[in-house]
Amino acid sequence: MADTRRSVRRGIVVRDILPAFKGRLLCEVTADDLRALCMRVKERGAPATAVQLRDIIKQIYADANLHGEKVENPADDVGIASIATFVPKDRVLSPLEIRLMHRQLEQVATYPTIRLALRLILLTMVRKSELIEATWDEVDFEAAVWTIPKSRMKARRAHNVYLSRRSIDIMVALHTGAAGSRYVLPSRYSADRCMSEATLNRVTQLVAERAKTTGLPLEPFTVHDLRRTGSTLLNEAGFNGDWIERSLAHGGEGRSSRAVYNKAEYAVQRRHMLQEWADMVDAWVQGSGHRPNLLLSDMAMPTVIARAL
């Protein structure tokens, strides 16, 4: 088991399973007990954690029976589908949905820093964990660049995130909100810890639920869908695929033989592209459009507009 996966599962045991079942015999934990615990975890905005919790319990009981215990496995009567269903991993928000997301973010009950965090993920296309665990010593405000160390990157390679003017504005606001914490997004309960990833998940659910109750065409989405949205819409706008892949930190992850050999950083191009992306998002939020400059030719590009509702 990879170290990261082991750490995640250990955290679930310590944070969720032990407080609920510590001191109880294996035969005393019922399927109803397990289902109720999974529902509590799901309701705090962590359905994937709830599914992993069920899998851990299933493995614990399977191992116990393998070593001579004769006890019913409560997880056998708790199907994954009864805990959570997951949307296909191809969700991309349209320009109109981006506008609606921003509007609904202002209406749901949450902290300003969480609203800012979701907007920043859309603008920078970073992974959720990369922002959640970010510290202020990674951010250079003068150079407008955020350098994520290789220890926190999936590809184990340091990654520069070039910050648009809008992203810098958000970082400044987050720095004020952090109130001296070393973390960009500190926990509400301790400035010495970063925010829980489940917090952002729950807010995206609230946004989609509110849109549904008001009859707005904003389908459910996840935090990771914001990253995919940026990638897809930049590709559709005609930006260089290598710039986009490097901005996503995909280079060197074995996606293609070309990715393995192309080590260019495209710093200037990526900075330009992310500023254009921020301008596109700003325009959509206002209900208008922005024709991006691709730096490739002077051919006219179509202007995509998020029509106001």
UniProtKB/TrEMBL annotation:
List each copy of the Tyr recombinase domain by range. 88-274
Q: State the source organism's domain of life.
A: Bacteria
By its UniProt entry, which Pfam families does this protein fall under? Phage_int_M (PF22022), Phage_integrase (PF00589)
Asked if the Swiss-Prot or TrEMBL record annotates the protein with the keyword Transmembrane, the reply is: no
Q: Which GO terms describe its biological process?
A: DNA integration; DNA recombination
Q: Which GO terms describe its molecular function?
A: DNA binding
Q: Which family does it belong to?
A: Belongs to the 'phage' integrase family.
Q: Which PANTHER family does the protein's record reference?
A: PROPHAGE INTEGRASE, PROPHAGE INTEGRASE INTS-RELATED
The protein in question is named Phage integrase family protein
